[in-house]
Amino acid sequence: MTQHPTSEERRPANRGPKAAAGNRAALVTAAREIYAVHGLDVPLSRIARRAGVGQGVLYRHFPDREAIAVAVLEENVRQIEQAAAAEGATPAGVLGVLTWHLTQSAAFIGLLHADGASGRLPAHAFARELSERVERALRGCLPEGHRLGAPDDLMLAVAMVSGAVTGPTHRERAHRALAAWRLLGVTVGPVRPFEG
Amino acid sequence: MTQHPTSEERRPANRGPKAAAGNRAALVTAAREIYAVHGLDVPLSRIARRAGVGQGVLYRHFPDREAIAVAVLEENVRQIEQAAAAEGATPAGVLGVLTWHLTQSAAFIGLLHADGASGRLPAHAFARELSERVERALRGCLPEGHRLGAPDDLMLAVAMVSGAVTGPTHRERAHRALAAWRLLGVTVGPVRPFEG
Amino acid sequence: MTQHPTSEERRPANRGPKAAAGNRAALVTAAREIYAVHGLDVPLSRIARRAGVGQGVLYRHFPDREAIAVAVLEENVRQIEQAAAAEGATPAGVLGVLTWHLTQSAAFIGLLHADGASGRLPAHAFARELSERVERALRGCLPEGHRLGAPDDLMLAVAMVSGAVTGPTHRERAHRALAAWRLLGVTVGPVRPFEG
Amino acid sequence: MTQHPTSEERRPANRGPKAAAGNRAALVTAAREIYAVHGLDVPLSRIARRAGVGQGVLYRHFPDREAIAVAVLEENVRQIEQAAAAEGATPAGVLGVLTWHLTQSAAFIGLLHADGASGRLPAHAFARELSERVERALRGCLPEGHRLGAPDDLMLAVAMVSGAVTGPTHRERAHRALAAWRLLGVTVGPVRPFEG
DNA sequence: AATGAATGAGGATTCATTCAT
DNA sequence: GATGAATGAATCCTCATTCAT
Predict the structure, then answer these.
(1) pLDDT recorded at residue C39
(2) Which residue has the least CA–C1' distance to nucleotide E8?
(3) Which residues in chain C have their CB less than 8 angstroms from residue A42's CB?
(4) Residue C149 shares a structural domain with residue C110
(5) Residue of D nearest to A2 (CA)
(6) Of A33, A61, A89, which residue sits at a domain end?
(7) How far apart are CA B78 and CA D140, in angstroms?
């Protein structure tokens, strides 16, 4: 009554369990690329297709739409944490890493811009949690008396800059982000990913 | 904001051809109310239902999803224009009106926040056009040497504040918006709609 | 981002609102026929296909799986009620009508057999309600001192007979049903639909 | 009924090839428990998970959905056969054992109720075969002139009682089953599993 | 000019089954 | 012999859009 596995068709190769880790990584990568362009509100099937796996694989690794988004954003957040924890981290440098991610990924913008609510993805706990990790990382390297030292100002400023990041090219987005930071009187840079 | 007793499930009988203008208005009102709560990414059928008209009417007045959004946002923009054109308009006052609209409407936020792209609605020319009308209106009442007087700073600041506007209640959103303006060193207020 | 109406394809004719009533009837008929053979646990798409309508039409008329089942079973129940309310209704005659429906429809069997729970269709209020309507109809024409006059015996007996109704052909099912009634010491017949 | 601490989410490590027999038993046990609650229409993956084995193991031992169902029901049937073959078996006693199984297992109900067709499981030969074993066992201990002595009456009565067995609790199901037997004028009891 | 039904494609999700390791 | 990941078809449901009346 239920499933017809189309008995006589041949299936295009089961690459075996070895592929599991690779598939997971491929999914995260595919999701990141697609999110960067289209935001979080994309058909999951598109992610699976781009990763070159079946729909089921996506669901196996990530039980819901939220899970894959978390996996992607989590990597962004981790880089910021690493940048903040590194030797000689400066506010300007860490904010530069953060800004780099903002200019890379519409998804990450969405996360910080507001509450993470976006189209099909309802605002959920994960957004708050990731957002708080970013906040902790940033605050940890803020010196006494920093321009954004007041409790609420830090993430407010981040949200504001996120709101300003638009434009078709990375260059343009970075330009606007820096202009926004300047308008806030905050020194930021260089804008680049964190590299151990 | 509400001129029709649209209780979401109303279904009056065919009101005849005379209702054409009224239907248009009802659709815009319904769309505004729904957009305010749910953002631009809602089923069109819901707007028609709330307006108490058939789906066909919506398509007659607004050929596509974009058109109805424009009609709604256009009213917001017009109010800002009126506020800017009024006797004794001050930057603080006009920005207060703008801020009020930001706190009212998720749709309006989207318009100014970035490029207007949101869920099913691709970024389109109308966003730029409306955005430019807002810019002209604001700049028109900016005195020499205003904090945001530099060419690019004005709309950048607006986008930044838009990015900061979040929260479940109007009160909370207004609070964050004002905090954002303060962080930018811009005086704004009172936050209220424009009334002739 | 969402819907692609395959712009350039032509659609196979919208027969217009006139078709509404006809479509509804066609759906109920299709569902009845399919239910009779396969039980309640069939893909809804199959019903729509058999009725010659799109999936959407089915969902318009019947918001969920339960609704279409109710519509089908309701007709069975109504016939029994009519039979019970008719001039000169006898227990044997009314039970004959009931038995006829049992032998026609696997769905109806499921309703009376137990609690209506069946595969994808969870046991729901509607089953109980319809079942009670059958009970009221039957009880209303039971004379004093009938073999099944005791409060719980009536529907218990019906459930028992339902359990006995099996077989590939109508003839065979009717035969088993009558044998079951006989084993219970209840006179039933003739087995036939009610005709005003 | 339970010999494995199958707490539904257990996932032990690979227990090695020696576990083959144990795995088979665990699968049957898991299937029985799940069938009892949810009927035959459950995902096979759930059975494997509960048994604490991989899906492949299930397919190794039971080539298709039918096979695992047969294995489960077969144990029920065997108990009835044993009860019937025991010293001093009485019709009432054996029917009591049969009734106990009816009240335990939705699956067993389905077997005897009709033709074994249920949701994803098409009616198949195995149902008939198991059903016949039950019949032989019962008939073997029926004395001359028993109420159900006529050739067709015995299994008809069993089917009828199966049809009456419903309800959320074992107690309720047993109550209804006994009421059904009483309505048939057959003495049955006690309702309990067979113990050597 | 309005109504609202019909259409059908699209996206989410589930599972039976296979198969590399 | 066991594991459990991969596959992808099938089903559910929603909605944008058209169009007969």
Answers:
(1) 83
(2) C54
(3) 1
(4) yes
(5) D120
(6) A61
(7) 93
End-of-domain residue from the set A8, A41, A61: A61
Same domain, D160 and D80: yes
B92 touching chain A per CB within 8 A: no
Confidence (pLDDT) at C14: 61
Mean pLDDT of A120-144: 85
pLDDT band at C108 (very low <50, low <70, confident <90, very high): confident
Q: Where residue C36 falls among pLDDT bands split at 50, 70, 90? A: confident
pLDDT tens for C142-162 read 999 999 999 999 999 999 999
d(CA C94, CA C135): 11
Kindly state whether residues C43 and C110 are assigned to the same domain: no
**Confidence band of C5 (pLDDT split at 50, 70, 90):** very low
Q: Which amino acid is at B71?
A: A
Is the minimum distance from the CB of D17 to strand E below 7 Å?
A: no
Does at least one atom of strand F sit less than 7 Å from the CB of C6?
A: no
Q: What is the pLDDT of residue D3?
A: 38
Residues 62-91 of A with CB under 7 A from strand E: 64-65
Query: Domain of C86?
Result: 65-183
Task: Report the pLDDT averaged over residues A99-123.
Answer: 71
Is the same domain home to A53 and A88?
A: no
Residue C7 lies in a domain: no
Q: Distance from residue D181 (CA) to nucleotide E9 (C1'), in Å?
A: 55
In the prediction, which pLDDT does C121 show? 66
pLDDT score, position A127: 79
CATH of the domain at A26: 1.10.10
Q: Could you report the per-residue pLDDT of D63-108, keeping only the tens digit for each?
A: 988 899 989 989 999 999 999 999 999 999 999 999 999 998 766 7
Q: Is residue D50 part of a domain?
A: yes
Which chain B residues contact residue C2 at CB under 8 A?
Answer: 120
Residues C47 and C129 in one domain: no
| Chain C interface disruption, residue of A1, A40, A46, most C CBs within 10 A | A1
- Looking at the fold, whether B88 and B141 belong to one and the same domain comes out as yes
Residue B92 in contact with residue B188, Cβ under 8 Å? Answer: yes
Strand F reaches within 7 A of the D16 CB: yes
Chain B contact for C1, CB < 8 A?
yes
pLDDT score of C2: 41
Residue D171 resides in a domain: yes
Q: How many domains does chain D have?
A: 2
Any chains having at least 3 CB pairs less than 8 A from chain C are A, B, D
Give the alpha-carbon dihedral of B176, B181, B187, B191, to 10 degrees. -40
Round to whole Å and give the CA distance between C175 and C189. Answer: 11
A 165-184 residues with CB < 8 A to B: 165-167, 176, 179-180, 183-184
Q: Is A125 on the interface with B (CB under 8 A)?
A: no
Of C49 and D14, the one with more pLDDT? C49
Same domain, C143 and C103: yes
Q: Which residues of D134-160 are buried (b: 16+ CB within 10 A; e: fewer)?
A: beebbbebbeeebebeeeebbbbbbbb
A6 inside domain: no
| Chain F footprint positions (protein CB, under 7 Å) | 1-21
Which of D's residues 90-149 have CB atoms within 7 A of nucleic strand F? none
